[in-house]
Amino acid sequence: MSLSTSPGGAxxxxxxxxxxxAPERPTRYWxxxxxxxxxxxxxxxxxxxxxxxxxxxVANEFATPNVVWVMTAFTLSGALASPxxxxxxxxxxxxxxxxxxxxxxxxxxxxxxxxPTFAIFVLGRFLSGVGFACMALGYTLIRDVFxxxxxxxxxxxxxxxxxxxxxxxxxxxxxxxxxxxFRSVFWFACAFCALGAVLTLLFVPETAVxxxxxxxxxxxxxxxxxxxxxxxxxxxxxVWGWSDPRIIGLLVLAVVGFAAWVWWERRTAExxxxxxxxxxxxxxFVLIGGGLAYGxxxxxxxxxxxxxxxxxxxxxxxxxATTMALWxxxxxxxxxxxxFFVGATAExxxxxxxxxxxxxxxxxxxxxxxxxxxxxxxxxxxxxxFGFGCMIYAAVPNLALLTLPETERxxxxxxxxxxxxxxxxLVSTVGFAVLAQNVLSSGAHGVVYAESxxxxxxxxxxxxxxxGALVAIAVPRMRASGATGPTG
Length: 488
Prior knowledge:
Blueprint: E1 2-3, E2 11-12, E3 16-17, H1 27-41, H2 43-49, H3 55-62, H4 69-92, H5 94-114, H6 118-128, H7 133-145, H8 151-180, H9 183-203, E4 210-211, H10 217-235, H11 237-240, H12 245-267, H13 281-309, H14 321-344, H15 351-369, H16 376-389, H17 392-403, H18 409-436, E5 439-443, E6 446-449, H19 451-472
Antiparallel strand pairs: 1-2, 3-4, 5-6
């Protein structure tokens, strides 16, 4: 019996064809290949950093208080698509699926760029979310085809790029929005995906690794139905009323859907996501603690640009997108620094303490912002604290690897990624449901929220991060080498 090598992998009954040794090619060939792959592995980072500044403009354009769907459609699609595309990549090749994935992402961005209605705009975002899978596919392709001497540094560069992209993407988005309108951001995203797809098709080598496996379409359908039910119920609570039978029915359907999904995943031979991994208590606490903290960062990164660009209210700063990028730049740089900090202190501090500290810092940020500050310095400092708290991005995957046996690490890493994405989607949906309860006005000029709405939404993020930090305390102490011991 062999194991699937897909990011969503499960045990596979067919043989896995081992990769042939990487051909002897000059280093410059692999540098070029890595640069091309970076165009695709950065899709998930760009999906947030590039798009978040457009949210106020999108809300104004379509006069909707449900702008949270711009992000939740993207993340939900990514959570569902990643394990499915990983299985397809095992069967048909990772390069091929990278090209397909990037093409779908380009089509999604194109639809959002020209969308005449909000529903069509969200459909485009849902298709764009497929690009989430590029990260896992890119990492595994590097592992399969790059020479061993270049694999560690290549994967490290790909990981570091995720934080670095956030710095430049905010400025790029600001310039595009201020000079060409918010739709130009989606035209850029379309061109970026399309360029990555073409260059990958022409210049990136294909892996010889193949592993035949079935795709758990039933599991994907049940998870999608449950997530859509709870998101629709929470987002429409203000409109329909929380006691409306439709809201109650949707929430009941979500609970039943999640229960059915868990039941199915525990019994099917090749599940979409390995639920049985939660039997490992250490991984369970990592997933819950890390997921809640990650959800808090998603909510904060979504509503802070809205607050800073608000002008038609007694609060807010009325910033242009470019000026907002300048305000947030120190915090974005701290995100990059936090990754280096985790790597440098892995032995002395330990990933468990990184997760706890990161959760606490994110909670502190949320509490500071819940005062809806009127001073620029408060916002800049708060976002710097947030940026350093984003050390959880590096801590959670490393903790997951330490808690799992070597044969389960590929599967478990995917599980961690999917759980973080789903938690981010749920926490953001709850935060925006709270925000939607505090609308001052809605019309042709967009939606204006009451100051209390932002306050309560920030407190939702603070509560999620605080609970995540508390749960992380229950994670067993482990050394960076994987052995249990007195370190963090």
